[in-house]
């Protein structure tokens, strides 16, 4: 009997970019205007990145791969995308 196909949750891969993830995406509606609203903005940004499994790009958990690693291109694209959102 053949083994059932394995379910692959692409959203668990931090390098996965959904078709809705684009450079013009407004990650949070609150714009950082002054230092006074930094904490609420920071919380909103961290939550938005966490639900997209991209929080590691700003907190250091998904650090840059070496240039010869097979995921180097994927890491670079995702890192650049996260940077455009901020």
UniProtKB/TrEMBL annotation:
InterPro entries: Copia-like_N. Residues 18-61 form the Retrotransposon Copia-like N-terminal domain. This is Retrotransposon Copia-like N-terminal domain-containing protein.
